[in-house]
Amino acid sequence: MLLRIAIDGPAGAGKSTVARLVAEKLGYTYIDTGAMYRALTLAALERGVDLQDPDALAQTLHAMGLEIRPGAAGNQVFIFGRDVTAKIRSPEVSEHVSLVSSHAKVRSAVVEMQQKMAKEDNVVMDGRDIGTVVMPDADLKIYLDASVEARAERRRLELARKGFHTPLEELMTKMRQRDEFDSTREVSPLRQAEDAIVIDTTNLSVREAVDLILDYCRGRGARV
After folding, report:
1. Is residue 224 part of a domain?
2. N or C: which end of the chain has fewer CB within 10 A?
3. CATH number at residue 186
4. Residues 18-45, buried b or exposed e (16+ Cβ, 10 A)?
């Protein structure tokens, strides 16, 4: 029997890190759906594709040869045969990914890819519409949240480790703007599934959040 775990939440709530570690502990496949949209955004920016043109973006998605490969430090993302794992986390990509992912045609194509992945193995998948759109019948749905201040500080530290230094106030402003955009967009808005378990990570360490989710996984029959 397959066990599919959906982890949703706003930017900076810790979804990717927590989901990856949960998948490692369980021995499941980790699918970072945000990385898929980020990869498309990077490809579009590099090739001068109009980010307002869903047809051009969909063509780019199918042409870029997206590959997500398991790696020692997490998934590695490839487009056009290049490893872009680090590049898709750049501030420029972060600034434009919400727009790219808001187009119905783009989301439809990416969701189809995600649903195919989810049928093939035990998975932990994170994003903003996993429990509501991609895997509405997931066996366990988690909604991770945190205060804007905590999320912005995490993003600041993440960027600093990669050589990008951005003031905290600027990141908080961008975080609020992205929250508003993601939660009010017409297609697959960010929202908590009715049957999702909410976990506030504001005052939780990564390990504490992971252990809490693993407890819920055990309750669904997972072997940890």
Report:
1. no
2. N
3. 3.40.50.300
4. bbbbbbebbebbbbbbbbbbbbbbbbbb
